[in-house]
């Protein structure tokens, strides 16, 4: 037994050592590359003849459609789209300039200052931000379930780990069992919500838009935002862990199936899944607005977020097809009111905004977020 | 006599209990088998029930006029910019001349897949002489129409709850009445790469990607694994070091596969700067994964060769190397090959390590070399299972059926190999 244990430790150590070798190798190599040749010349010996896209799994369904149509055009190879999540994608994107690094990072949130800084440190300076449209986050239940009208305050109270008590500044462990406990107007049904895990961009957006929106309705918590923003975030962004909220994984199809099986449960996912499964599930009203294509496009539905992608300007004239892909994505037939992306559930931006952004993309105007 | 009687009495007293125990044991064993078979049966039944429809695809017959002045304005044909969509649309419009309102026409155009334009393009590319003629073509219907024909869209529920409107269903019914709707074998599933349009999506890219990966894996892991096994069994001195190596190999066989993915990311991609998403890197990672399996199986095969054969060879003056190469290796080969095939079928079903090296990606073009970006079959299944379009559900099951088919084939080969080449001593 003891020999066995020892050897496990040894083999694990060997693995760790190998990993460490790999890592240190990477860093020193990147440095060596930087020292030996400026980014441009490493691009000049470009060995990649396709566009390389990484990032958000929410933008993935849209980016892949554009990539496919663009590829079928026949002039260039079909871009490769990797689904890595927004954070993972931007990390890869910011790792450097050159054929080994992605040209485009899709993101279901705006790039963070810290990410811009990382980019700058690795020589990625001119980043072009392209907003592509909106995505609604819906709270849906089975078609046979009760129709409800939730306010953001209801959502916060039903799902937060700690909820405000009667007195100002008082926080209680969330003890609401049924929706009626939260708001007497809601049905007496046990709170059971299936949602994405914390690694998901959908979860981030849901927490920021729905939970925080509800959180702000409590005056003293709202005041905290200025005085103690960490505590404010902890209160507004922490989801309860007592079983009322179930992390159902990244697969939204699975959530839809589970909702069908349990008419009392609610699920949180992107609008495109509601759109494709509308005979199985229906979206709950939020603040009295039903999540429909038009309501999200008009900005009436409160839980919606913009989607983005980021482009490396330095790659634009080196990677074959990159400019073409950008032109295809920002064309009216793709992201327009009646474009093929809207068929897939992307909510288009207003006409003027699209026109302005398309011009931006043509000129590749970089992001003005300066690195510190 | 007295003692014998008591023994006999003791036996008889306990006999009923022992028989009961035996019967119980049998029943438990049988139940376990039945439960196992039942689960397998349910698994296969749901898979086939869900996936079998994906092998058929609905096609619509359209009379498409390949107008020269639309396709080749000014007399030059430019395939990249020719308006094939327009031709498909006007052909569809001709079927329903009464549909004139813009919104209605848009609805009408949604009945046919974008694949129709691609098919038209391929036709013209192959035979430009068809320009100006009218062709009666079977083009793929859109996935919504396909779902309707397959009964996955219930036309009795309220219109707002379906992806097809009453009007669209009416058009499909009329087309069907004219004999212009037909369910055919879904060739695209096997000849196309991935696509975001379910009716055009196929597993060819993933199958080729998996093939390249396994090619790399087998060419590396089999020789290395067999050489390592021979050295460890036949030549290595017994020492603490060789014990340590042996235990480590056994441990490696049990390491979760995602760890090999992380290792591959650090070593092959970051350090050796090999391309991401390439079957070459996937194959290398899977080599690491299958090596311990092959070494263990090969060592077992070598151990099974009887010592008498070795001794006889040594006795007539063969060297150690000659004993191994001329006698042990040929006799152990069936066992080694079986181990290799089982290792390969494990590698074919792996997706976790491929997540780390960028093979979970949307790749339309079928890979043409070891360094082209590619996916693998299990990854394709994962990607389709996560797609919002309804028609991908049946294609996910179909892809699983294809994967299981390959696995069965490989395991069957292993069994045949063992049966035909095995020697009993």
Explain what this protein looks like in three dimensions.
The complex is a heterodimer of chains A (372) and B (425). With 372 residues, chain A is α/β, with parallel strands linked by helices. Chain A folds into 2 domains: 43-134 and 308-363, Periplasmic binding protein-like II (D-Maltodextrin-Binding Protein, domain 2); 136-305, Periplasmic binding protein-like II (D-Maltodextrin-Binding Protein, domain 2). Chain A is 45% helix and 16% strand. Chain A contains 17 helices and 13 strands. Chain A has helices at 2-36, 39-44, 60-72, 86-93, 113-121, 152-159, 179-182, 201-215, 219-227, 229-237, 252-261, 271-276, 293-297, 322-329, 332-335, 340-343, 351-363; strands at residues 52-55, 80-82, 104-107, 127-142, 149-150, 162-164, 171-173, 193-195, 245-247, 266-270, 281-283, 285-286, 304-312. In chain A, a hairpin with a 6-residue loop joins strand 6 and strand 7. The termini of chain A are far apart. Chain B contains 17 helices and 4 strands. In chain B, strands 2-1-3 form a 3-stranded antiparallel β-sheet. Chain B is extended. Chains A and B meet through helix 1, helix 3, strand 2 and helix 12 of A and helix 10, helix 11 and strand 4 of B.
């Amino acid at each position: 037994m003891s020999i066995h244990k020892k050897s496990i430790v040894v083999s694990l150590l060997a693995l760790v050592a190998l990993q460490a070798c790999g890592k240190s190798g990477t860093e020193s190599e990147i440095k060596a590359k930087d020292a030996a040749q400026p980014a441009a010349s490493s691009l000049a010996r470009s060995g990649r003849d396709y566009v390389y896209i990484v990032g958000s799994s929410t933008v993935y369904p849209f980016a892949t459609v554009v990539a496919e149509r663009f590829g079928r055009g026949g002039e260039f190879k079909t871009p490769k789209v990797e689904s890595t999540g927004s954070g993972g994608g931007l990390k890869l994107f910011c790792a450097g300039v050159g054929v080994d690094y992605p040209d485009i990072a899709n993101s279901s949130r705006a790039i963070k200052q810290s990410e811009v800084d990382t980019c700058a440190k690795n020589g990625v300076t001119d980043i072009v931000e392209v907003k592509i449209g909106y995505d609604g986050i819906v709270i849906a239940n089975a078609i046979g379930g009760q129709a409800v009208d939730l306010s953001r305050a209801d959502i916060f109270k039903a799902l937060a780990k700690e909820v405000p008590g009667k007195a100002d500044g008082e926080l209680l462990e969330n003890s609401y069992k049924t929706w009626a406990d939260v708001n007497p107007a809601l049905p007496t049904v046990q709170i059971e919500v299936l949602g994405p895990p914390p690694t998901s961009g959908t979860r981030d957006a849901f927490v920021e838009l729905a939970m925080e929106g509800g959180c702000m309705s409590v005056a003293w918590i709202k005041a905290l935002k200025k005085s103690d923003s960490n505590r404010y975030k902890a209160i507004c962004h922490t989801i309860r862990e007592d079983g009322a909220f179930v992390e159902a994984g990244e697969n939204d199809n699975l959530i839809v199936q589970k909702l069908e099986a349990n008419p009392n449960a609610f699920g949180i996912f992107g609008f495109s899944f509601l759109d494709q499964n509308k005979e199985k599930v229906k979206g709950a009203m939020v603040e009295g607005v039903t999540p429909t294509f038009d309501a999200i496009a008009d900005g009436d539905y409160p839980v919606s977020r913009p989607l983005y992608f980021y482009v490396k300007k330095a790659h634009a004239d080196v990677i074959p097809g990159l400019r073409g892909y950008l032109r295809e994505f920002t064309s009216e037939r793709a992201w327009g009111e009646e474009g093929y992306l809207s068929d897939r559930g992307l909510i288009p931006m207003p006409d003027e905004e699209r026109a302005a952004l398309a011009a931006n993309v043509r000129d590749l105007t970089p992001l003005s977020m300066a690195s510190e | 006599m007295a003692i014998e009687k008591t023994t006999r009495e003791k036996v008889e007293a306990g006999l009923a209990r022992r028989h009961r125990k035996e019967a119980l044991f049998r029943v438990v064993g049988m139940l376990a088998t039945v439960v196992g078979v039942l689960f397998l049966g349910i698994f296969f039944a749901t898979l086939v029930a869900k996936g079998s429809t994906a092998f058929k695809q609905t096609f619509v017959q359209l009379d498409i006029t390949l107008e020269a002045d639309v396709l080749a304005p000014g007399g030059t044909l430019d395939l990249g910019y020719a308006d094939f969509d327009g031709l498909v649309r006007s052909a569809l419009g001709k079927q329903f001349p009464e549909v004139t309102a813009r919104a209605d026409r848009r609805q009408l155009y949604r009945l046919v897949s974008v694949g129709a334009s691609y098919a038209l393009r391929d036709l013209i590319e192959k035979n430009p002489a068809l320009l100006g003629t009218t062709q009666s073509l079977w083009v793929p219907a859109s996935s919504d129409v396909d779902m309707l024909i397959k009964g996955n869209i219930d036309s009795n529920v309220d219109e707002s709850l379906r992806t097809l409107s009453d009007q669209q269903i009416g058009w499909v019914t009329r087309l069907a009445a004219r004999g212009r709707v037909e369910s055919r074998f879904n060739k695209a599933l096997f000849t196309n790469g991935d696509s975001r349009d379910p009716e055009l999506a196929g597993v060819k890219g993933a199958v080729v990607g998996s093939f390249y990966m396994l090619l790399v894996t087998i060419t590396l892991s089999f020789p290395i694994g067999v050489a390592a096994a021979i050295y460890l069994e036949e030549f290595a001195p017994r020492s603490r070091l060789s014990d340590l190596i042996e235990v480590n190999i056994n441990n490696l066989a049990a390491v979760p596969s995602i760890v090999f993915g992380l290792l591959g990311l650090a070593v092959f991609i970051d350090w050796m700067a090999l391309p991401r998403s390439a079957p070459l890197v996937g194959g290398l990672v899977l080599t690491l994964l299958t090596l311990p399996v092959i070494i263990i199986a090969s060592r077992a095969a070598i151990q099974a060769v009887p010592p008498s054969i070795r001794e006889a060879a040594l006795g007539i003056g063969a060297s150690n190397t000659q004993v191994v190469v001329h006698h042990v290796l040929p006799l152990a080969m069936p066992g080694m090959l079986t181990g290799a095939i089982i290792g390969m079928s494990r590698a074919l079903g792996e997706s976790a390590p491929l997540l780390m090296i960028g093979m979970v990606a949307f790749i339309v073009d079928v890979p043409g070399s070891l360094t082209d970006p590619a996916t693998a079959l299990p990854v394709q299944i994962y990607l389709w299972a996560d797609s919002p379009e309804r028609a991908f559900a049946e294609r996910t099951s179909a892809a699983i059926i294809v994967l299981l088919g390959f696995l069965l084939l490989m395991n069957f080969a292993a069994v045949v190999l063992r049966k035909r080449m095995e020697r009993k001593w």
